[in-house]
Amino acid sequence: MFDRKELHRLVDELPEEKLPRMGDFFRHLFDEEELELNDETKKQVDEARERVKNGEYVTLDELLEETRDV
Fold first, then answer.
1. What span, in angstroms and rounded, lies between the C-alpha atoms of 7 and 26?
2. 68: DSSP letter
3. pLDDT digit string, tens, across residues 2-32
4. What is the model's pTM?
5. How far apart are CA 40 and CA 7, in angstroms?
6. What is the DSSP string of 29-62?
């Protein structure tokens, strides 16, 4: 599990060109509670949270690669 210190370290190591994308990602996280999710999206969020609980995750580099064209 990440703590603030580890997250700060990861952000500090990001290349400058990736900072805008991560800023958008963090803004999205803070806005999450304002979203109205449909049942299918709620199901997907619940499944994702369960995977995290089970230790299934991707690295930051993998996430950035997956969302490059989003």
1. 12
2. T
3. 788 988 888 888 888 988 888 888 888 777 6
4. 0.40
5. 30
6. HHHGGG----HHHHHHHHHHHHHHHTT----HHH
